Amino acid sequence: MKSSIRNILSKAPFRGLGVKFPSGDLGVKAPFRGLGVVSLLLLLHVLPAVAERPKLVVGIMVDGLRQEHLDAFHDYFVEGGLKTLMHGGTALPHMRYSTASAGNAPDVATVMTGATPAYHGVAGNVYFNRHKGHEESVLLDADQVGIGTQHSYSAHRLLSTTVVDELTLATGGQARCYAVGIDPEATIMLGGHTARSATWIDDVQLQWVTTGYYAEGLPACADLMNVDGRFDSTAYVRWTPLFPVNSYVWNARRDARAFDYVPAQPLGNQTSPSILRRTPAANTLVTDLALQLLRGEGLGQGYYPDMLLLQYTVRTPGDPFASVHSIEKEDMYMRLDKEVKRLLEAVAWEAGMERTVIVLFANQSDTHTPVELGNSKIPSGYFNAGRAVALLNTYLMALYGQERWVEGYSGKHIFLNRRKIEEKRLDLGEMQEVTAEFMLEFEGIRSAYTAPQIRNQPLSGDFEAMALRNSYHKDSGGDVVVTLLPGWMEVDNHNQPVGGTASTAVEVPVFFYGGNVPRQTVGTPYDMTDLAPTLTALLGIPTPNACTGQPIKEAVGWE
Prior knowledge:
34% of the residues lie in helices and 16% in strands. The protein is of the alpha/beta class. The protein has 3 domains: 2-51, no CATH class; 56-365 and 518-556, Alkaline Phosphatase, subunit A, CATH 3.40.720; 381-491, 2-Layer Sandwich (Gyrase A, domain 2), CATH 3.30.1360.150. A 10-stranded mixed β-sheet has the order 5-8-7-6-9-1-10-17-2-18, with helices on both faces. Strands 12-13-15-14 form a 4-stranded antiparallel β-sheet. The protein has a two-stranded antiparallel sheet with strand order 3-4. α8 links the parallel β6 (177-181) and β7 (197-202). α5 (104-113) packs parallel to α8 (184-191), α11 packs parallel to α12 (327-350) and α14 (385-400) crosses α16. The radius of gyration is 26 Å and the shape is globular.
């Protein structure tokens, strides 16, 4: 009995757990002196529970992913790709963001912190800087230096710890955490404050770039891909239909035409330098670098857990919407499916799927475009905030005098000129209320809230009001915030979409797979703030310090 216990305790997964094995009689020598058979059996029962935590967590965020699209294309996906995530673990098709949609940065920050923008501080991809009087990126950090890019970015406006941060702190910096993505907003929020690197695609220079904010800067394997031409060669591969045009599910009317894009080049007369970030080439590049990090760093093979956070996309060139109304969108899904399969096979080979937990999630996105709704005689439209704010300022001038009363506008937030209001000894609260009442006169506006109204909203009740409260932070919030009617979308003077969805009924899919994750579909609607505490529960580490979510008990195997 004693010999067999010694043999068991000297092997994985018990090796490295701090148990010493002195020579001689195991029943007499420390640390087991005085332990009876029952105590030793209890020890054997407890230790595996500690060792079961995953050695690798792979987080996959897919920009624009929707459950109805996965269902529509399900039979066309290959074995070992998206189907594996959809059916091989815990599927949660009814997850919801209890926040106002404002871009990838706040959505990903909410997932990684387990908190809403009211706590973590990132309310949008951009925010209006009152001190400078203009909009700027929420990532902008003058104290940092870009590596391969002129942009000086960081996560300094993210006020909470993330799952990555908590894992880094819990392991004394020994956990190896890397983020790889397509755009800097999602990638940096995935990496948090303490990832070893956060690397994203520069669609101007056509290379991997990062910021000096992270300890390792640009990973050596990313730099090598830039130098040896692998990045360029992928970016210049022509994108044409993967299958015959008539075989696509969307092409029901059989009138779709084949497409032909070069990812590294712009589309028509668009001002963007290239369409790379909205093509399958971007997803391929993310997988390529992820596999290099997985193998080169030996992720999931050390004593401490590691994390690999990835951003993919299903958005297409010249089409920022999430709806499927082109064979390009369908083709993006089919090619993403192949990238997921390639990733899963590599993870299984390098780290072992039994030691890995994979979580796939999506951001907030619209189901339909105003054009689609309008063609079906469903109320919809476009709201031009620039014109509305210009008329608002004219109205306030008529009431309060010839001054520039509206200082700025950003993401449905209206910023009044507080310095001028104070100088003229006017009532800020009154002007906020007048502004809100005026904005309600515009077509497409559903509601308008003053800052005090938002701050005083209860934690439950009207979903829209609650979402605004969750998304409002004192350092970046405006004096008045407007919301749009369902089916409406904000556009700029060039009719390009601005901000996120106006829908209050957006559900996104989440899938947990690998390790000991149960195989099941969960119909219970959970909030996206519940993902972070679920991951920390699986990892056995503290939750982020602003976390308001609760672990998803089905995913962690709790009764």
